[in-house]
Amino acid sequence: MEIASTIGQILVAIGAINWGLAGVFGIDLVALITGSKFGEVNAISRVIYGLVGLAGIGGLLDLAGLV
User: Fold this and answer.
1) How far, CA to CA in Å, does 7 sit from each of 22, 24, 37, 60?
2) What is the domain count for the chain?
3) What pLDDT does residue 2 have?
4) Which of 3, 15, 21, 43 has the most CB atoms around its CB within 10 Å?
5) Residue 10, Cα to own-chain centre: how many angstroms?
6) Containing domain of residue 41, as a range?
7) Which residues are within 8 A (CB) of 49 and not within 5 positions of it... i.e. 6 or more apart?
8) Where is 1: in which H helix or E strand?
9) pLDDT band for position 67 (50/70/90)?
């Protein structure tokens, strides 16, 4: 379970960095990684965003002591 927690924390950090870059500099890190333009969504980016979202939910559950 420790490995899953570490991966979740990394994904949450990636999501936070992506939002920070988007808000401050107008850069979409996931789009850069997947070869898309800002705000474009493709299959790979959907998977990344989905995993980041699940990691965020897991982080909230952990923070609340439910996991």
Assistant:
1) 22, 26, 26, 15
2) 1
3) 87
4) 15
5) 8
6) 2-63
7) 30, 41
8) none
9) confident
